[in-house]
Write a sequence for this structure.
């Protein structure tokens, strides 16, 4: 492992890769800092630029966006009180009060350094975890794979805060979407209704762009043009601060830092749940465990540290799941998986072994972009703050057009743009009717894998009990049941409490 | 009937229709599990879950709280056409945009759509439109330079450009 790590270091310092990494990180920080533009959207917008790159160059760019974005969100969260991304929501709780107390510099730098440290802590686990888990996963047969994917799909609706049954419907619908087109075993047409358009099925990336970028922009578009936009943010901050003092103060809270980073890491490992859950959970835990919980929300460093270290550690966790199993840890890694496939690399447990330069290069890109982020933010904090002020109607119009560009550039066919449009409308309706989006994307990605492994398992041996007599397969199935039961139990409890109060 | 119940019903009907559609999927004789096997499982699951969504709504309706919430919901829903006017128009504009890309050409439609979308989502003051035009031209030129010249993506040219 160490040998491969050292072996891959040269490939990241290749000028083309390194420059892409810096550009990606800067793009991530900007996207992260602008409220209404999520990191997922940024990575989607960057995607078409990576089509012409080498696999490592493209992936490094995306890792840069991811790491930079998680940090960039804190700029607007701390200074103007609006989270730049959903994963910086909890940062506003203490970051903005600290700014209003006259310490904007401290607020921002607490965030930036906590992000960096959270990233580094998770980075260690990323390298060790991804390699170890991939080694285990290589030994899986079709039964284990099927059960793992089944577990992945069952855990997602239970983790989303919305209706459980709607989460499940969303997931199964995603699987169904993936089954449209030519079937993977016999090559027979399914649900194509004799149209040329559907023969090759729905391409994954336009679906993802539609569901995650297009529909989100439309949701945000409802709010444009109102008085909120006319309000002028204060941008003349005194951002001077003693960096050593801030770093020392963070390291003075090792328990908070490590706990929050681990929460972020674990949430990241769980499939399809991202930083937006991690930062709130970490903040909540920090408050509960604190000796002075009443001070939370008044502008204390503890809250900023918890939120920011957890959302960056979440990146490490998501990358573990993506690299070891080929399952997306969240929407951003879903895009990365799509990018890998475009470059002809099959994600899965063999990925690290078969493409060591790309895999270990990703590790290096992750570590490097952590430091690049700090450097860029140090140099350009004020510039980013100005960019945050770009009005919504201009921003969203451009993003919508870039969605079209991204979908089209993939295969140079207009049909992909219609796919984007269709799933954009669908995603928008799903948001409005309370269906979570993460499961449908997971379903679309895992669909072909689930089917292939299910059929392969049954064709290898028609004995269905193998799914529960093989220990690892059984473990995943039991975990699926447990996660569903816990989710239903908790929801009942919440409903009962709500009924009593209401 | 509430929104969830309607969605539940739609899912049920859709699943049944698609289940009928799977009858048309040819099954090769040698293979034990045909290509229709897996989609049928999914559709059966969807059918069941659609029913659950529908039934659970009916049950919920009995509790007073749900009824109250429902009333609030309907009151909110009355103004939906006004509230979502912007979004509906955006979707319409966007649909026309995709339709016209191959006919008129990607760049000219993009430039026009950018102005329309900005006007639709922002404030419609005459002074603003000069800014919208500028942004639209700059964006379109940037897309041309980066994607067409640098990344070699060939967008449909249509009859204009």
């Amino acid at each position: 492992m160490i040998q491969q790590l050292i072996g891959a270091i040269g490939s990241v310092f290749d000028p083309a890769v390194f420059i892409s990494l810096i550009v990606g990180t800067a793009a991530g920080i900007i996207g992260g800092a602008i409220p209404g533009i999520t990191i997922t959207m940024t990575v989607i917008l960057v995607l078409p630029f990576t089509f012409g790159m080498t696999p490592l160059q493209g992936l490094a760019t995306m890792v840069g966006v991811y790491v930079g974005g998680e940090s960039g969100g804190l700029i607007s969260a701390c200074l103007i009180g609006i989270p730049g991304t959903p994963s910086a929501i909890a940062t506003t709780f203490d970051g903005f009060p600290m700014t209003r107390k006259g310490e904007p510099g401290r607020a921002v730098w607490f965030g930036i350094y906590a992000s960096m440290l959270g990233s580094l802590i998770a980075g260690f686990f990323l390298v060790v975890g991804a390699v170890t888990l991939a080694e285990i996963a290589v030994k899986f047969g079709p039964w284990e794979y099927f059960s793992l994917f089944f577990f992945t799909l069952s855990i997602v609706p239970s983790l989303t805060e919305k209706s459980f049954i709607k989460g499940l419907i969303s997931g199964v619908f995603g699987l169904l979407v993936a089954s449209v087109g030519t079937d993977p075993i016999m090559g027979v047409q399914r649900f194509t209704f004799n149209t040329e358009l559907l023969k090759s099925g729905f391409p994954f990336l336009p679906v993802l762009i539609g569901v995650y970028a297009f529909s989100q922009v439309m949701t945000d578009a409802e709010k444009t043009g109102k008085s909120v936009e006319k309000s002028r943010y204060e941008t003349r901050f005194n951002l001077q601060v003693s960096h050593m003092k801030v770093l020392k103060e963070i390291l003075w809270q090792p328990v908070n830092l490590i706990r929050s980073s681990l929460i972020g890491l674990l949430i990241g490992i769980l499939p399809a749940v991202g930083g937006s859950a991690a930062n709130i959970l970490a903040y909540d835990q920090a408050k509960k465990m604190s000796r002075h919980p009443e001070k939370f929300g008044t502008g204390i460093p503890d809250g900023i540290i918890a939120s920011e270290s957890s959302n960056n550690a979440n990146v490490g966790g998501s990358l573990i799941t993506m690299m070891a199993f080929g399952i997306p840890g969240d929407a951003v890694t879903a895009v990365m998986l799509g990018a890998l496939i475009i470059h002809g690399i099959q994600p899965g447990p063999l990925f690290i072994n078969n493409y060591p330069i790309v895999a270990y290069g990703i590790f290096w890109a992750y570590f490097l972009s952590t430091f690049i982020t700090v450097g860029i933010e140090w140099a350009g904090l004020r510039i980013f703050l100005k960019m945050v002020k770009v009005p919504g109607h201009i921003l969203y119009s451009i993003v919508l057009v870039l969605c079209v560009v991204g979908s089209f550039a993939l295969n140079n066919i207009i049909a992909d743009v219609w796919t984007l449009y269709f799933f954009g409308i669908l995603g928008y309706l799903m948001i409005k009717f309370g269906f979570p989006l993460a499961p449908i994307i997971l379903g679309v990605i895992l669909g072909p894998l689930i089917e292939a492994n299910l059929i392969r398992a049954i064709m290898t041996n028609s004995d269905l009990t193998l799914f529960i007599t093989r220990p690892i397969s059984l473990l995943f199935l039991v975990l699926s049941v447990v996660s569903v039961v816990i989710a239903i139990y908790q929801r009942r409890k919440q409903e009962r409490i709500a009924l009593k109060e209401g | 009937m509430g929104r969830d119940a309607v969605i539940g019903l739609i899912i049920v009907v859709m699943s049944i229709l698609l289940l009928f559609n799977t009858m048309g999927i040819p099954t090769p004789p040698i293979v034990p599990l045909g290509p229709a096997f897996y989609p049928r499982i999914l559709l059966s699951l969807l059918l069941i879950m659609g029913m659950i969504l529908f039934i659970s709504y009916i049950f919920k309706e009995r509790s007073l709280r749900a009824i109250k919430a429902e009333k609030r919901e309907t009151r909110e829903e009355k103004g939906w056409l006004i509230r979502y006017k912007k979004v509906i128009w955006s979707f319409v504009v966007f649909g026309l945009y995709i339709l016209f890309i191959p006919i008129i050409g990607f760049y000219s439609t993009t430039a026009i759509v950018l102005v329309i979308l900005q006007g639709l989502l922002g404030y419609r003051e005459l002074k603003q439109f000069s800014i919208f035009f500028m942004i639209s031209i700059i964006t379109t030129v940037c897309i041309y330079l980066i994607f067409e010249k640098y990344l070699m993506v060939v967008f449909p040219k249509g009859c204009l450009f």
Notes: Residues 2 and 70 of chain B are 8 Å apart (CA to CA).
